[in-house]
Amino acid sequence: MVEGFITGQHRSPYNGFAVEFAAHREYAPGDDLRHIDWKVWSKTDRLYIKEYEEETNLGCHLLIDSSKSMGYGKEADGKDGDAGWSKFDYACTAAASLGYLMQQQQDSVGMVTFSNQIDKTFKSSSHPSHLKMLLHELEQVTPENKTDISDPFLALAAQIRNRGMICLFSDLFLDPEDLGKALNQFRLRKHEVIVFHVMHHDELEFPFQENTLFKGMEVDAQLHTEPRALRKSYMAAVEKYIQRVKKICATAGVDHVLLDTSQPLGAVLSSYLAFRSKSGGRGRR
């Protein structure tokens, strides 16, 4: 069943007791007696339950990291266009694009901004004005505080009760073990989860040449150094971390999508949507 970005109306993969008949299954102790097919019982002398298939729209929650490190990029580049976007701008635009696509197919969209706490929460809705309100709220957000998803995501997992899609937009500057635990909180509740790992091009390529003073955005630390002497070990450390994040996501049954702020956002999203289309409209389960 398609439960994602591609189709207009979604047929639920979750069996309920409404709308359209799906199949019979043998009665088991504890089943609701109201759904026994008595006509089948009169012919076979065996009890069967009628199962139905719900027509449902997808519920999606966009979780956007608004910690201070997500603000990197705009001030460093000082330019317009994709190359001058901060990680937060890029993440917000990606989230808004997906939110728009979902509303076009009558899906409901909710949003959460977080750092080391849940900053703002908006329940999901498919009303046309709802997305405009979400975009307005995003424009008011200034990245601050540290990244910490352990406590916020535990609370969110308990709040989001209906199974649906969770889209996380973050640079993932956190303990990978905390990430794995947080993702599992959603997966245990049968949500489909997609991690959009947002990184600035500087972080991926380390293009610095001259002596540079590096300052921490979420920690009180700084380092004045010769970048070319560090580039090889830095690149190895970044690649190791990305591969570790990918492994954690794969283990949890979660899609991992790396977003490079220098890449045209439309092309990146189109590529992922094509992947979902080929995989039957969904990622990992």
Q: How does this structure look, described?
A:
The chain is of the alpha/beta class and 285 residues long. It folds into two domains: 10-56, no CATH class; 59-278, 3-Layer(aba) Sandwich (Rossmann fold), CATH 3.40.50. Helices cover 38% and strands 26% of the residues. The protein has helices at 38-44, 74-77, 87-104, 128-139, 150-159, 176-187, 201-205, 227-252, 265-278, and strands at residues 10-16, 20-26, 48-56, 59-65, 108-114, 118-125, 165-170, 192-199, 212-215, 222-225, 255-260. Strand 5 (108-114) and strand 6 form a beta hairpin. Helix 3 packs antiparallel against helix 4 (128-139), helix 5 packs parallel to helix 6 (176-187) and helix 6 runs parallel beside helix 8 (227-252). The longest helix is centred in the C-terminal third of the chain and has 26 residues, at 227-252. The model is unreliable at 1-19 and 76-82 (pLDDT under 50).
Task: Walk me through the topology.
Blueprint lengths: L9 E7 L3 E7 L11 H7 L3 E9 L2 E7 L8 H4 L9 H18 L3 E7 L3 E8 L2 H12 L10 H10 L5 E6 L5 H12 L4 E8 L1 H5 L6 E4 L6 E4 L1 H26 L2 E6 L4 H14 L7
Helix pairs in contact: 3-4, 5-6, 6-8
